[in-house]
């Protein structure tokens, strides 16, 4: 209650300021102290400093949120431009296709009518000729009646009668061969074109897909507080690549690529036994050439700073080679009873793509293996693992499959126009899946939920039968190797 009198006391139990008239209502309260004691050194108190720090934190947090929202506004504008461009491109493609169809059908109509007119003109010319002959015969008959002898008339009459019979037979043939049938031209519009007008009511739905933004606000009063950190997942519309380096390796038939510490890379050359694994420095200089004795090397994966693993589908030496890149030799060979192609190291295990088997998990210590996914995979399938999910390509079905670590399918992306001859694949820190399409000379990216895709690189950027691809999640860089 406000008594319009000066405050003298503070009730700590109720956190209230008290005047002398208020004391009666707080007789039973403990912790009533003089206000002079409370305000002593208040400007140097922890409360003053904490309040000041909280205000600073609030300003910083507001600035962070403003920056994030401004960034998202820019991203929305970019996505809007991209979608509008896709709409225009689609419209132009439809227009171009319809223009070609129109030109084709117009030419077809012209060809048909031209032939019909030509056939009729030929018949008209013959009829005109017959009419002239008939008129001549009539005149001859009149002349014979006036001037010819009976013998001449008889002979001439025989000739005219024969010609008349021939002409009558010709006229009857015109009726019999349907030359005088009435012609009606009918254009039957394809139902699919009619469906565009009648059934297609929209270009397609525009959906708003949200991705949680992990923002920890600065709050120094909270001992668990962290400095503000924004972790945004990058959508495929926002993926931008900048070419940083081209390395001329001189290596042919590259089927595996992986990044090494210090910006170095390793490549696998898939040839008949023996295979080869080569390492290159960040400057493109070859560092080593490791011969895979009695086997070959298809795909490779990074295990630790000195160890790689390479698959060998060689018919007499099937298995996985453990490679010591420091000693430049094969330290161990794990035999299998199946041909392995793609390989990925994850949590101490090796995951491989055996032909006609599926996905197997190999223990590199004892060589034991367990089937995770049962699938009739063709040769040249690749695998990557991210966020406790496995992703693998299938050239036979022109698809990419995502499944959990127990082998349960999460989704399958299949589109022969997009994934023609899919080879290597790699997953970035946002879960976007990059696929090298060797036959189309392109790299495409598929969204984590497989609902979107985008052509990222093509032959224009120097791709020639790309097969091996790797995403370095620490350096945030994409490595792509042409087959030759």
From TrEMBL:
UniProt KW keywords: Coiled coil, Repeat
- This chain's protein is named B box-type domain-containing protein
Q: Which residues form a coiled coil?
A: 48-147
Entry-linked Gene3D superfamilies: TolB, C-terminal domain, Vinculin, Vh2 four-helix bundle
- Ranges for the NHL repeats: 419-449
Question: Superkingdom of this entry's organism?
Answer: Eukaryota
